[in-house]
Specification:
Layout lengths: L6 H17 L2 H7 L7 H15 L17 H13 L12 E7 L2 E6 L2 E5 L15 H8 L8 H5 L5 H14 L1
Antiparallel strand pairs: 1-2, 2-3
Helix pairs in contact: 1-4
Length: about 170
């Protein structure tokens, strides 16, 4: 078995490296670091616009749904090069949160006993394996637009692949 990259894969790797070297400069890296004085949301949106212009906004998606249609090897090369370049993936996962409420200020949470407000304009909550509609019902009662998917919709029939599929389509609509 030959596990070397093909000439096409090496050309693709070189294209990815060149794009990252040109578009992910020190200024962009600082903005995406989330350090004091930076506007992370604007920075990640600007970075996503660069990826979109290149046609790389959804590397794991099929071409018919707006993705790249890349092979598994191309996705591996892209993610490896992204990681080597120190480029964040744009997702911030925060474990151990207790959701308190959502209002005009944002998502109110408690994290390890410390209250905080996460300023957001869109919230996607992936939580638990038990059907629990309480947050959904509260948000809808306030007149907000909300969708119920995955285990919150029907935990008895939860299938991780189906839940991810539901979340992907919902995120694409946002």
């Amino acid at each position: 078995m030959d596990i070397k990259f093909s000439a096409e894969d090496i050309a693709f790797r070189d294209e990815v490296r060149a794009f990252f070297a040109k578009e992910y400069d020190a200024t962009v890296a600082e903005q995406l670091s989330g350090s004091a004085g930076t506007d992370y949301k604007s920075a990640i949106v600007n970075w996503q616009k660069k990826l979109h212009a290149k046609g790389w906004i959804a590397p794991g998606w099929p071409k018919e749904y707006g993705g790249t249609g890349w092979t598994s090897t191309q996705k591996f090369i892209y993610e490896t090069e992204r990681g080597l370049a120190g480029i964040p993936d744009g997702v911030k996962m925060i474990n151990g949160l207790e959701y308190q409420k959502i209002d005009d200020k944002g998502l109110h949470v408690t994290n390890n006993g410390i209250r905080d407000i996460i300023e957001v304009d869109t919230v996607v909550i992936c939580a638990g394996q038990l059907s629990n509609r309480s947050l959904y019902d509260e948000v809808v009662a306030l007149g907000a637009d909300a969708s119920l998917i995955g285990g919150a919709f029907e935990a008895a029939e939860l299938d991780a692949k189906a839940a991810i599929n539901q979340a992907s389509y919902l995120a694409a609509e946002v």
